[in-house]
Design brief:
Shape: elongated
Oligomer: single chain
Number of strands: 0
Largest sheet: none
Length: 320
């Protein structure tokens, strides 16, 4: 009987492979894949136009809370720069990924715990996991900016000494800087070249980078754009101020990073401990998943773990 079951599984696998092969062959033959790709390219182009409309409406000046969920996702994707490498990442695909992740988390919870309260909590947490990933990616980009900000300001000062024009300085500095500032600077130039005022584009540039000092620099330069226009003096003073506070800022940032990793480590150790105890004593797992008090306790533990993880991710964006 065991061998019969194995043979049936192998036959099923072969059938699935053959079905997938002929399905792909049919799609290629009918040029459906090309049509899908063309449709997606059109969608990406429309997404870029939407982005420019948001910029022209001074979206960056307002707070994200005043906008729809899709606009928040669009802004988060832009800050993480993930769409530079993966064009498929748009607010629509993010929502689809959120839903799929939520279903996977809910299903896994149902297969292991099978507690309705825990299932709902874990499913809801699964919905925001892709956004948490983008938030972590954004924070890492912001930390990387710290290491190159002094060099970036030196470049701006050099080119502002040649011509007191912030657009000129950023355009020429872009040729010598690395990611992620290179991408953000290119986006700034793209916006200015498409009719966005430098004041608005500078505010947008600052809001795209999760770095307090860089935000301060961009905000100061944007105000300078509408008042004195003394970019060289402003950038030089911003650099001097940054140099004075650099060591303390790095110390606080490192402490926050250690705290975040420590929190995640505690969650991992706690989960591993509960799993180990349940494995050693199967009756404990049965009590936690079948009795009313056990289910409430398990749901509380799950809720606590989720809250702790959210705090850890949020601390990565701590305002230094």
């Amino acid at each position: 009987m065991k061998y019969v079951y194995l043979i049936l599984n192998i036959m099923l696998l072969i059938t699935i492979v053959i079905f997938v092969y002929f399905s792909i062959s049919y799609l290629i033959e009918q040029k459906i894949i090309g049509k899908i790709k063309k449709g997606f390219d059109n969608y990406v182009e429309e997404e870029q136009k939407r982005q420019m409309e948001i910029i022209k409406k001074k979206f960056y000046i307002q707070t994200n809370k005043k906008h729809r969920y899709t606009e928040y996702l669009r802004f988060l994707i832009t800050k993480s720069t993930i769409n530079n490498r993966f064009k498929i990442v748009t607010p629509l695909t993010m929502i689809i990924i959120n839903v799929l992740t939520s279903i996977v988390f809910y299903s896994l919870s149902s297969l292991t715990l099978n507690i309705i309260y825990s299932n709902i909590l874990i499913g809801a947490f699964g919905f925001v996991v892709p956004q948490l990933f983008l938030m972590v990616l954004t924070a890492l980009k912001g930390n990387k900016v710290d290491k190159m900000l002094i060099d970036y300001m030196n470049l701006l000062i050099n080119f502002l000494s040649v011509q007191n024009n912030i657009v000129y300085a950023i355009e020429n500095s872009t040729k010598f800087i690395e990611e992620p500032l290179k991408t953000f600077s290119e986006q700034f130039l793209f916006e200015v070249n498409h009719g966005v005022p430098p004041y608005t584009a500078l505010l947008g540039l600052g809001k795209k980078v999760e770095n307090t000092q860089f935000k301060f620099l961009c905000k100061t330069l944007s105000l300078c754009n509408t008042t004195s226009g003394k970019y060289l003096m402003i950038t030089t003073k911003a650099k001097d101020l940054y140099m004075k506070t650099y060591d303390k800022d790095m110390e606080r940032k490192n402490e926050a990073l250690k705290s975040s990793f420590g929190i995640v480590g505690m969650v991992a150790i706690g989960a591993a401990t509960i799993y180990t105890l349940s494995f050693i004593n199967p009756k404990l797992f049965i009590q936690l998943t079948t009795t009313t008090m056990g289910q409430l306790l398990t749901s509380y533990i799950v809720f606590s773990f989720i809250v702790v993880i959210l705090i850890a991710v949020n601390s990565l964006s701590f305002d230094y």
